[in-house]
Amino acid sequence: LAEESADSAYHSHGSSLEEEAAERMDDEEQERLLSYWQSVGRGHQVDVPRDMAEPIQQLTRNNSPQERQSIPFTLIQRKEKLGDLLYEKRQYGKAKWACIKMKEKQYEQSICLGFMKLMRYICEQNSSGLYLGITIPIVTIVHTDEAQSAMTPAVTVAYYLPEVLQDEPPHPFDSDIIIEEWPATIVYSRSFRGITNEDSIMREINLLAAILESPELCLRDTFIIAGYTNPAAANRHNEIWFLQRP
């Protein structure tokens, strides 16, 4: 009996030590990830608060390619030249998105702060209390003047709700996040890499406008930046979307 109770005490003590070690590693991972995001944030003139540690960790753990759900679309046309893809024409169906309007001094500040708010919503800060899952791309609606020569500061950062949540989206705790239903839309999409700021976005808008055969079919002052990698990544995969007029 004494041996059994000693054995049981050993195992119980061993398992509690394992739990403590796992918790310590968990805390260390949170600190490391938070520190990394804070250093990236400083580069964009954005403060990343301590309460972002847990959402950042959740998102990082669930950010493998097989965990991410791509927004469904129908490919209508691929335009190529000498083997290079110039753009794709796609149709996206009617769908619900979690949206937040931002108006910081710089575009990078707006998307970083907007994305952090959406991360909290995705990572359990919603009426279901559940982790909602990553969908890609995260999109940002940007506006320019009619001449397409300059961007306005107001942007909307938006997260496509996963298929299983489309009928009944969880309610955000953050009152700045609004659930919107977007109509079916035809877009002209062109891929580009790197950081997204006012200069790179205007360059991509002008480039796609020059390539399209009939740019007049699209809205002249509203565009979408689709981001396939998080704002902390250096060499991001992005797309510029022109929206066909309804």
What kind of assembly state do the chains in view correspond to?
single chain
Measured between the Cα atoms of the first and last residue, the distance is 80 Å
Tally of individual helices: 4
CATH H-level superfamily of the largest domain: Regulatory factor, effector binding domain
Based on Cα principal axes, name the global outline: globular
Which CATH C-level class of the largest domain is it? Alpha Beta
Q: How large is the radius of gyration?
A: 22 Å
Query: How many individual domains?
Result: 2
Helix content: 25-40%
- Give the ordered list of helices and strands: HHEEEEHEEEEEHEE
Main pleated sheet: 9 strands, antiparallel
Structural class: alpha+beta
Stretches where pLDDT falls below 50 for ≥5 residues?
none
CATH topology of the largest domain: Multidrug-efflux Transporter 1 Regulator Bmrr, Chain A
Strand order of the largest sheet: 2-3-9-11-10-6-7-4-8
Mean pLDDT: 86
Strand content: 25-35%
Work out the number of β strands.
11
**CATH architecture annotation of the largest domain:** Alpha-Beta Barrel
